[in-house]
Amino acid sequence: MKGKIVRVAGPLVIARGIPGAKMYDVVRVGNAGLVGEIIELKGDEASIQVYENTSGIGPGEPVITTGAPLSVELGPGLLTSIFDGIQRPLDVMREKVGDFITRGLDIPPLSREKKWDFEPAVKEGEEIGEGDILGEVQETKYIRHRILVPPGIKGKVRKIRGGSFTIEEEIAVIKTDDGKETSLTMLQKWPVRRPRPFKKKLPPEKILITGQRVIDAFFPLAKGGTACVPGPFGSGKTVLQHQLAKWSDAHIIIYIGCGERGNEMASVLLEFPELEDPYTGEPLINRTVLIANTSNMPVAAREASIYTGVTIAEYFRDMGYNVAVMADSTSRWAEALREISGRLEEMPGEEGYPAYLPQRVAEFYERAGRVICIGKDGREGTLSIIGAVSPPGGDLSDPVVQATLKVVKVFWSLEDWLAYRRHFPAINWLTSYSLYVENLESYLKKEIAEDWLNLRKEALKILEKEADLQEIVRLVGVESLSPKDRLLLETARSIREDFLHQNAFDPVDTYSPLKKQYLMLKIVLEFHHQLIKLLEEGKDIQDLLSHPLREEIARMRYVKNEDEKTLSDLLERVRKIGEVAHV
Amino acid sequence: MFKEYLTVREISGPLVLVEEVEGVKYDELIEITAPDGSLRRGRVLEVHEDKALVQLFEGATGIDIYRTRVRFLGRGIEIGLSLDMLGRVFDGMGRVRDDGPPIIPEITLDINGSPINPYSRDYPSEFIQTGISAIDGLNTLVRGQKLPIFSGSGLPHARVAAQIVRQAKVLGKEEKFAVVFAGMGITFEEADFFLKSFEKGVALSRTVVFLNLADDPSIERIATPRVALTCAEYLAFYKDMHVLVILLDMTNYCEALREISAARKEVPGRRGYPGYMYTDLASIYERAGRIKGKKGSITQMPILTMPEDDKTHPIPDLTGYITEGQIILSRSLHRKGIYPPIDVLPSLSRLKDRGIGKGKTREDHADLFNQLFSAYAHGKEVQELAVILGEESLSELDRIYYKFAEIFEEVYVNQGEYEERSIEETLDLGWKLLTLLPQSELKRVRPEFIEKYLPKEKFTPERGG
Ligand SMILES: Nc1ncnc2c1ncn2[C@@H]1O[C@H](COP(=O)(O)OP(=O)(O)OP(=O)(O)O)[C@@H](O)[C@H]1O
Ligand SMILES: [Mg+2]
Fold first, then answer.
1. Ligand 1 pocket check: which of B139, B350, B353, B354 to mutate, most ligand atoms within 8 Å of Cβ?
2. What class is the A3-69 domain?
3. CATH code reported for the domain at A198-437
4. Using a 6 Å cutoff on CB, does residue A235 contact ligand 1?
5. Which of A284, A341, A579, B315 could, after both became Cys, cross-link A272 (CB 3.0–4.6 A)?
6. Structure pTM?
7. ipTM, 2 dp
8. B8-40 per-residue burial string, b: 16 or more CB within 10 A, e: under 16
9. Which of B279, B306, B345, B356 best tests the A interface by mutation, with the highest count of A CBs <10 A?
10. Where are the domains of chain A?
C-alpha cells in the first residue's frame, strides 16, 4: 500500500493515504524516489518537505514511508568527509554520477567496505550501560574514535572481539537485563532533530582558544559556549568562521556551509589537507567533518543541514571531546524554514518568518554546552556553536539576528565600514560582547597572566575614549586636543592597527597564540604608560607621537609565534625608554 | 500527440489556471495556442490534484477562457545547443532572433541545469587581465569568479562591461574563449551598443547573444539568464572554452520575479520582492566556476542598477550575499568626469588573493595593493574632514594625502575607454603614485620592493590628461 501525491509546489509535496505516516518520518516521494520528511499531518494528508528538486513530479505518483525519522549515520569514517545537508557523501556522489548533483540517489553516508581496527575496552562478562566505552578505533592520527554503548542499552557483555572490521560487522553482543541479546556494530544511527542525551550540563569555564586576537583578548568564547557573527555581505563572516575552523583548540570541527557558496567549500577542501593543526601538527582535515549544502542545492536540505551537523557534533562530544560547530549561515537556514512555512500557508510572523522561528533558533543553540557525558567514567565533553547571521542590508533588527541574540552569549558584530577600511576582522570593538569573561576569569588569570583582564579592560577603555575624542576632532580639529588626549588617540590607533587588525591571509599573522597576544597588548599599553610619563616630564608631544619604537610595535604581528624572546625583549626596551635620555 | 486541454479557468496577470488535467508534473513546460493561433510557452508553478497553475513567459494578452488550447509537454524547458550558436543572436527564450538559419542542435539541455557538486569545484585562481587599472590592480578578477557590477541609472556600466569584454585575457595563453551576453529588459539602444562593440572587439564570431528587450514580454526574463547559462555551460564543459557571461540588467530580472510573486499573492518579503529571491538568484549566480579535470570555465559578470543608488536594496544586497565581491560604480566620480567611475573603497574582489602575486601577476602586487588602498582611503577621509574644517586646518602630511587621493582618481582610476593597460603598466603606475608620499609612510610595502620598484623621481601628473 502506498500513499499518493495530490499536490506539488516547489519543495513542498502533499500526499494522501500514506500507511503508517508519522510526524518527521522520512518518506520516498514519487517515481524518482526523492527523499522527503513529513512535517505536518492533517487527517489523511501529509505535508512533506522534499530534500531534492521536485521538477517532473506530479499528482498520482506514489509515496512510501521508511517508518524512521531523518537520521544520521555515526561511526568511524566521519572525519575528513564532506556530506550534503542530509548526509549524502559528496565525494562518493561525484565518483558515481559525475560533477553535478543528481537526485534520487541512495548512497550510504559511511563506507561499508572500509575496515577499521577495533580495540575492545571491555571484557566479556562485564556490566555495561549506555555511553560506556566499548572500544576504540584510531580514526585519524590523533583522533581515537570511541565506540560507545548506544543510549538505552544496558546489560552484560556476552561477546566482544577486537580486530579489523567494517562498520556493519558485529563487534559485541550485549545481554540486556530482560534476557535479550543485542548485537552491536560500529555503526549507529541517531535522529537529527532529537538532541543526544547527556548526564548533566555544567557552566563553561575554559576558553576556546581561537588565535584571533580580537576574540581571545576582548570577546572570548568558552568551550561549550555559543557565539554569533552577524554582518552585511563582505564583512568577513566566512573568513572568520574559516579562521575558527582552522585555529580553534577544539578536537573536532564540524563546518556547516548552509546555503552559501560552492567555492567557499572548495577553498576549505583545498586548504585543510595542507594546513597543520597548531596543536598536533596534523593536517587540519583530519579533525574535520564538512557539511555542504550550498545556496543552489535544494532548499529543504538546507533546513536539515544544521541538524545533521550538530548531531554529528554531539556524537563526538559524547566521546569526551571538545567539539566546535560553525554554521555559515544560519540566515539561510531560517529562510528555508520561511519558504516551507509560506508554502504551508502558515500565519507569517515578522518579515514573513514563521512565529516559531525564535523557538527553533533557541533549540538549536541549546544543543551546545559543557556536559558530563553519559557513561560510567564521568568524562566531560563540550560542544561550542558559532553561527553566522546574514541580515538584509546588515540591519541588526532582523528577526533572525534578534532571535539569535536572545540565546547566544557572545556577539561579534561585523561592520561594513570597518571592512571598507580593510580593518579585519571587522569586529566592532565598541558594540561586541562576551558574557563568558567572568566564567573564564580564573582560568585566564592562571593560564595567561594575572594582569590579562586588566590589560583587556584598559585597552577597551582607551578605545571608548577614542570614540568620544573623535567626535570632538570631527567638529574642531585635532589641534584642539590636549597633548595627553592626542597621545591617547595614537595609542588607540595602535591598539586597532597593531593589535586588533589581523590578516587571515598572512602565514604568521593568521594565528596568534595566547602568550603572543598577551605580550603584544602588554607592549602597546606599556608603551602608552611610558609616553604619558615622558609627556608629564615635559617632553614634546610631536617627538612622542613619532617615537621610533612605533615601527617595531607595528611589526610585532609578524614575529614568529614560537619566538617569544623578540617580544619579551621589546617589552623590556619599552619599559626602559624613559632611561634613554632623549627620544 | 499531446493531449490538448480547453479547460483554462482563470487568467490573472501572467498566471493561468488550467483544470481537469491529468498526469501534469511540477515545473513542466507547456504550450498554449491562443484563439488567434499564436503559440505561447509557460511552465507549471504548482499542481494540485487536477488543477495546474501555469506561468506564461510571453504574457497572457489575447488568451481567453473558452478557446485557448493548452498542451503539457512532459519535460522541462530545454534548449538545443551547438557551436553554430557562436556569432548568432537569440531571443530571451533561446529562439533565433537574427536572420540566420535555425540551429541544428548537437545536444539539448534543461535550462535549469543541475547544481555543481561542491566537491567537484576547482578553486578559481587564474588572473584575468581586463586592462582596467581599478580592476586589475585593486579588485582583481579571476577565471571562474562571479563578480557583479553595481551601477545606477545613467552610469556607464555598459561601456565598462563592453571594455572588459573587448580586453579581457589570460596572460601567456592562447585558449578558446567565448562571450555569452544576456540582455534582460534593456533598450534597443543598449543592445545595439553591445552588438556594435562586439563587432569591433572580440569579433562577433566568439559571442552568443540572448536578448529580451524592454518591450519584450517581461516574464520571459525569468528564462533568459538560465538559457544563457545553459549555453555557457555547454561551451565551457562540453567544448572546453573559457566563457565570460554578462547578464544585464539583473534588476529587470528581479522585477519579473516580483511580478509573478505578486500575481500568486505570496507573502511579500522586503520591498515586495519574494522571500525566495536569494535562493532564486543563487541558482543563477552559482552557475559560475571551474570544475576539477575540465578545461573550460564560466566567469560571470552580472550587472545591476541599484534603485536609488541604494546598496541595501534587496537586489544588490542579495546579489552581494551570493557573488564573490562587487565592483561599485560611483555617481560622484562620474560627475567628476572620471571613467570608469569605479568606487574603489567599497568594491572588492574576494578571490583576488589567490590570483595575484609571483607567477600570476607580480611579486609586489599584494603589498602595493594594500599601500595604495590605505593611502587612498586615508586621503578620502582627509577630504571629508576638510569639507567640515577647511583645508587650512589640515596638517602638512594630511594635505599630501588629500592631494594623493585626487591624483589617484585622475590618473589611476581614470583611463580611456579604449586604453588597455597591461598589468605591469598598472603596477608601475601604482608605484609612480607612491612617490607622492613620503617614503616613511610606505609601511605596507616591504623594503626590498621599495628598493626594486619605487621610481627615484617624484611623479608629476599631467593635468587633465
Ligand atoms: N581577517 C581577514 N583578513 C584579511 N581579509 C579579510 C579578513 N576577513 C575578511 N577579509 C576580506 O573580506 C572579504 C569578504 O569576507 P567574507 O567572505 O568572509 O564575507 P562574508 O561576511 O562571509 O560575506 P557574505 O555574507 O557575502 O558571505 C574576503 O574575501 C577578504 O578579502
Ligand atoms: Mg560568507
1. B350
2. mainly beta
3. 3.40.50.300
4. yes
5. A284
6. 0.95
7. 0.93
8. beebeebbbbbeebeebbbbbbbebbbeeeeeb
9. B279
10. 3-69, 111-186, 198-437, 452-582
